[in-house]
Amino acid sequence: MGSEALRLKEVDAFYGDSHVLHGVSFGLGTGATLGLLGRNGAGKTTCISTIMGFLRPRRGSIELYGQEVAGLAPELISRLGICLVPQGRRVFRTLSVRENLVVAAQQRASRANGSGWSLNRVYALFPRLKEREKQTAGLLSGGEQQLLAIGRALMGNPRLLLMDEPSEGLAPQLVAEVGRAIAQLKHGGLSIVLVEQNIKMTFELADELVIFNTGRVVFQGTPVEARAAKNIIAQHLGVF
């Protein structure tokens, strides 16, 4: 897969005195999709928060394309090219769809595929956002807000996109739409970390899987390898 977009090495993180990440290590190849799986409370969202700088690691290294970002402020990490689709959407409810997108726009010096994200490109990916361009975001359905949250992150022209539970609470039709969008982004060469409870979608989209339990990595491998490790998967995900 070439050079690595992301590398975590022996990352420990704490909430106060509570040790929440224990020696977490994994990597993501450029242009690949990595699925983070685990039961509720396993440490997936905490890992995303640590990568984004919301929670500073007590020990270990986090590299973005070989550049150390552990301990940097979230705004600096964002400027370096890590963009987040947060759990719970968190759109700006009083702004219009267009304003939500424009406020997040960032330019990058270079893009691997030679083209950046613009309003028109986001609208081409999610036509219903174009249809609701002038509508206040707080009046959108939950599914439409999720599409807006993804579009807003893309307007940051990410080098690495972190997606935290993008299908959570969505109707099946919108889950399928989000899945198709992620597949398009992956096909376009974007490096993606996908945190999901939707195991089927994650297995279909991810090149590699990392499974968490109690803040530790308990499995790393391809979806094919995960399916073969039925005992581990059943123990930590409750499937198979």
Question: Would you kindly provide a written description of the structure presented here, covering whatever features stand out?
Answer:
With 240 residues, the chain is an alpha/beta fold. The protein has one domain (4-237): Rossmann fold. Helices cover 35% and strands 26% of the residues. The protein has 10 helices and 10 strands. The chain has helices spanning 44-52, 74-79, 97-102, 119-125, 127-131, 142-154, 172-187, 199-205, 223-228, 230-237; strands spanning 4-15, 18-29, 33-37, 59-64, 67-68, 82-85, 160-164, 191-195, 208-213, 216-221. The protein has a 6-stranded mixed β-sheet with strand order 6-7-8-3-9-10, sandwiched between helices. The chain has a 4-stranded antiparallel β-sheet with strand order 2-1-4-5, with helices on one face. It is globular and about 45 Å long. The two termini are 29 Å apart. The relative contact order is 0.19. Residues 110-114 have low confidence and may be disordered.
Report the portion of residues in β strands.
Answer: 25-35%
CATH homologous superfamily label: P-loop containing nucleotide triphosphate hydrolases
Enter the CATH topology name. Answer: Rossmann fold
Structural classification: alpha/beta
- Sheet with the most strands, sense and barrel status: 6 strands, mixed
State the share of residues found in helices, binned by percent: 25-40%
Number of helices: 10
Q: What is the chain-wise order of helices and strands?
A: EEEHEEHEHHHHEHEHEEHH
